[in-house]
Amino acid sequence: SGKEKWPKGEEKVWRAGMRSVDKNISDVTRSVVNHVQTSLARQPYNLDDFGAYQASALSVRDNLLVNWNETQMNYTRKAPKRAYYLSLEFLMGRTLDNALLNLGLKDQYKDGVKSLGFNMEDLLEKERDAALGNGGLGRLAACYLDSSASQELPVWGYGLRYKYGIFQQLISQDGEQLEAPDPWLENQNPWELPRIDVTYQIRFYGNADRVTDGSGRAIWQGGQEVLAIAYDVMIPGYGTKTTNNLRLWESKPKRGFDLNSFNAGNYEGAVEVSNSADAITSVLYPNDHTFWTAASLADILRRFKNTGKPIKEFPDYIAIQLNDTHPTLAIPELMRILIDEEDLHWNQAWHIVTNTFFYTNHTVLPEALEKWPVPLLEHVLPRHMQIIYDIVSAQSYIFHRPKLISSDRTCMVSFPYVHPELTADVAPFRFFLQAVEKKYPGDRDRLARMSLIEEGAPKQVRMAFLACVGSRKVNGVAELHSELVQTTILKDFVDFDGISKFGNVTNGITPRRWLDQCNPELSALISKTLQLSPGAWLKELTKLEGLLPYAESKTFRAEWAAIKQRNKERLARHVEVTLGLKVRTDAMYDVQIKRLHEYKRQTLNILGVIHRYLTLKSLKPAERAKANRKVVFFAGKAAPAYYIAKLTIRLIVNVARVINADPETNEYLQLYFLPDYSVSLAEVLIPASDISQHISTAGTEASGTSNMKFCLNGGLLLGTVDGANIEIAEEVGESNVFFFGHLTPAVEDLRYQHVYHPVPIEQKCPALAQVLNQISGGLFGGDGVYEPLLNTIRQGDYYLLTDDFDSYIAALAMVDEAYLDKEEWIKKSIKTTAKMGKFSSDRAINEYAESYWNIEAIPVPDGIVA
Ligand code: 475
Question: Whole-prediction pTM value?
Answer without folding.
Answer: 0.92
